[in-house]
Amino acid sequence: MYKENGVHLRDVRIGAYTSLLSICQDGYSLSGTPVLGFDNSEVLARINECHPLTSTDGSYKSEILTTVFNIGLKKLDVNERPLWIVPNSIRHRKYSPIKKKGEKLTTSGFESSQSILHRQFASLVKKDDKEILKFANKYGLLKRCSVHDLVFMNRDTGQQFQPGESLLWWKEEIEDLAACLELWDMVLAEDEKLKDIVLWHRDGIAIRLDDRHVQLVGRANMNLLGKWSRGDIKGPALYYLSLEADKRLINALTPRLLPLQNSEVCLFPDGLLATIWLMFLLEISGRTRFIQCQSCGVYFDARDPRARFCSTRCRMRDYRKRRTRKPRRRKKVKEDEMV
């Protein structure tokens, strides 16, 4: 089970800690402030009082500043009005992407509909705010931490609300995952455009994605060049993808022993965002294999290498299309012969 200094991913099952995954029973909505009915300064003061956002010397900055208050984001369009995805009430229910009670964990521990969660999330990059809100209403907030348990009461109406998450931050996470998935699909297809993304130069290797230029291998880690042959583009691309997944999963996975299931060791993500990146990590590690259905275009986990369709329905739909095309071709050939 132990490989070198760690545990191999294929030897560990994946689970989801139900007490850490929750969703608002009354859904979510888009708001102009982090909490419905409260302005930014009031919310910031209350949160900073309960959870200090920065240290006195400035050495510590909480991720709450990014996820809730848009501070520290990579880009912010001055013409774009900041919005927040906020819960409509303080009532939450727990849910889990694990299979129904009593069923043993499968290889990945997730249902087939949840195993493509990362691709569903990345597909939102081309969608509008309403589609992002629809995703949140189905799966909840990305990072539900202790600050989201704070309750703000409206003195006039008596209604209680809790903080939400920045829509701008959601969009950045969506864009980052979409870029990684696009790069991964290029690696699978052995796309020639990889040569324009993975750049070998005198001082190491760089990754160029849109407006980002990442120095993957430099003087500090020059020893990594010995891992790949000169000009290799797939190896460095996979290394970059693994680093991106690692950044999101640091301190976000909890190993647990399941004594009722043959003492199996499971990794439990602490929230929705960690679950999404864990699904991506499973795909690039080979634990799952996703292809696009040739009929409906939806991605699905294809365990059979010969699979081309996500369901029998799509397979039959494609069969009927091919059946209707053949008679037309034959009829056209007969008309040409008569002429």
Describe the structure.
- The chain has helices at 40-50, 64-67, 112-115, 117-122, 129-139, 167-189, 234-249, 272-284, 312-338; strands spanning 2-3, 6-7, 13-14, 22-24, 28-31, 84-87, 92-94, 152-153, 160-161, 165-166, 198-201, 204-209, 212-217, 253-258, 264-269, 290-292, 299-301.
- It is an alpha+beta fold.
- It has a domain at 289-339.
- β1 (2-3) and β2 form a beta hairpin.
Q: How far from one another are the termini? A: 73 Å
- Biggest beta sheet attributes: 3 strands, mixed
Number of helices: 9
SS elements, strand count: 17
- Gyration radius over CA: 24 Å
Spatial ordering of strands, largest sheet:
3-15-14
> Which residues sit in consecutive blocks of at least 5 with pLDDT less than 50?
98-113
Oligomer: single chain
Estimate the helix proportion, in percent.
Answer: 25-40%
- The gross shape turns out to be globular
The topology string of helices and strands comes to EEEEEHHEEHHHEEEHEEEHEEHEEH
Mean pLDDT: 77
Structural class: alpha+beta
Strand-residue proportion = 15-25%
